[in-house]
Structure prediction request, 134 residues.
Amino acid sequence: MNDVIAGSIQMMFADPVTGAELAKAGKVRALGVTGKNRVSVFPDVPPIADSVPGYDATNWHMILAPAHTPAEIVEKLSAEIRAIVALPEIRQQIEKLGLEPLDSPPPAELRKFLDADITTWTNLVKQIGLAGSL
Prediction:
């Protein structure tokens, strides 16, 4: 972000947590949001999907437990985290960061989401030739 502000680079992708305050201060200009919908901290910034149909590249945050954690512990942690995120003051803080608080699905659904996201990005990296480039 410092390079964008300094003019060293002209464009970058940044999450709302990083970019919102700088955009509000006029130091950077938000051109589009990468999800399918507008976001609360950039209500006047259109989704890239409006111009590029099917575009959807959102970031997300997930709390994970170590492999082989007993299912009952995972379920208990999941229930507690959902209860905390449901608190109005916590949702307010999440929104203040420029994030969209979501009701978390059960752990099994999150696992499916994670597996699908890994597959999507793995396929893209291979398709554009980045696989093994590091």
Summary: The chain has a mean pLDDT of 86. The chain is about 45% helix and 0% strand. The two ends are 23 Å apart (CA to CA). Residues 3 and 43 are 25 Å apart (CA to CA).
